[in-house]
Amino acid sequence: MRNTMRHALVALFAVLATVVAGCGQDRPAAGPAPEPEATVVTIRPGTVTLSTILPGRTAALLVSEVRPQVGGIIQKRLFREGADVKEGEVLYQIDPATFQAAYDSAKAVLARAEAAVEPARLKAARYADLVKTNGVSQQDNDDAQAAYKQYVAEVASARAALETARINLGYTRVVAPISGRIGRSSVTPGALVTANQANALATVQKTDPAYVDVTQSTGELLRLRRALAEGRLRKAGTDGAKVKLLFEDGSAYPLEGTLQFSDITVDPDTSVVTLRALFPNPKRDLLPGLYVRAVLEEGVDENAILVPQAAVTRDSKGNPMVLLVTADNTVERRSITVDRVVGSDWLVGSGLAAGDRVIVEGLQKVRPGGKVKATEAVAADASAASGQAPGTAATPAARQ
């Protein structure tokens, strides 16, 4: 009985082995692995306006510190702090009593001198006639003529003293030297002030329009000049470079400014050059001393090659490179040089040409020398690959 069961099991295993072997012979042999898929962008050079963002500070167009030109006690303050004042408007009244007295005294001295000059003139005229007939001696005539000239000089001196007294009396009315907005007052009525004191009574600033002073490194300035000289860039406009502003929170100032000048000296401590732009400021949003970022249009690159940042990787030495798809759909690694970031793309200096197909998606699936199934990115896909919203005008060249 036991031997019979053993023979039955052996026979069953033999049948199963035959079935399994038959099934293996019926299965088809495994074929080659499918080619990986990748999304590519075809490079097409285009025109790009290049700009640079530089830090800066706003400054008033005109700044005038109000100081007294005569000493005395402040009687009145005739303005409201933070208000707009006009040129010539009275800001402070200094006690004029002593200066009024000095003016009146100088006026009296002039009147006395003018009264004395007339008799001297008549005497000099008579002596001039008498000396011709020997009616008076030559010495008496000379004395009369000298006395008359002395009285004339005294009148001139008295008139100058009167003018000085009048000016000092006028200086008791401290007026605004320029039109603009006045700040806080450093004195109150009753305070003693002195002529040309170190501390200003107040400060008047004209802030419409306003200056924005920014700094640019000498390296960036030389690079820009070389690009313009070599013809790789052309100027953005003929009326001066346009400048836009960004506030500290990233919001944009709504009005454009114009670059006025570039300083002729370089700061030896920081190796930067100061640039000054002029901005309209009708609503006084640009307060003096405000930190801003200026967006300067450097020039226009008419043959710019842009590639999405997602497509650029780095080798072990940190050099940028991209993966291309050749005409026979073979993956090729190529080293490139990049100049700067434009929006969400890199501006390529060398290494790419028109018609090159750069892989922007699927980089992990491919390897150099292997085959790939390339799919051209549409506008929306290309924008998403570079992290940019579709239709953004900052990167026109790589999307066309």
Summarize the structure.
The protein is an alpha+beta fold and 400 residues long. It is built from five helices and 21 strands.
Strand and helix map with partners:
Blueprint (H helix, E strand, L loop, with lengths): L1 H25 L10 E6 L3 E21 L5 E6 L6 E2 L4 E5 L2 H34 L7 H34 L1 E3 L4 E3 L9 E2 L8 E16 H12 L12 E5 L10 E6 L9 E8 L11 E14 L1 E3 L4 E2 L5 E6 L5 E5 L1 E6 L2 E6 L6 E5 L11 E4 L2 H7 L15
Parallel strand pairs: 1-21
Antiparallel strand pairs: 1-20, 2-9, 2-13, 3-5, 3-8, 4-7, 5-6, 7-9, 9-12, 10-11, 10-13, 11-12, 14-19, 15-16, 16-17, 18-19
Describe the 3D structure.
- The longest helix is centred in the first third of the chain and has 34 residues, at 97-130.
- Residues 380-400 have low confidence and may be disordered.
- The chain is built from five helices and 21 strands.
- The chain is elongated.
- It has four domains: 37-50 and 304-399, conserved putative lor/sdh protein from methanococcus maripaludis s2 fold, CATH 2.40.420.20; 51-60 and 211-299, Efflux pump adaptor protein, beta barrel domain (Elongation Factor Tu (Ef-tu), domain 3); 68-95 and 173-199, RNA polymerase II/Efflux pump adaptor protein, barrel-sandwich hybrid domain (OB fold (Dihydrolipoamide Acetyltransferase, E2P), Beta Barrel), CATH 2.40.50; 97-171, Helix Hairpins, CATH 1.10.287.
- 28% of the residues lie in helices and 34% in strands.
- With 400 residues, it is α+β, with helices and mostly antiparallel strands.
- It has helices at residues 2-26, 97-130, 138-171, 218-229, 379-385, and strands at residues 37-42, 46-66, 72-77, 84-85, 90-94, 173-175, 180-182, 192-193, 202-217, 242-246, 257-262, 272-279, 291-304, 306-308, 313-314, 320-325, 331-335, 337-342, 345-350, 357-361, 373-376.
- The strands form five sheets. A six-stranded antiparallel beta barrel has the order 2-9-12-11-10-13. A four-stranded antiparallel beta sheet has the order 6-5-3-8. Strands 20-1-21 form a three-stranded mixed beta sheet, with no helix packed on it.
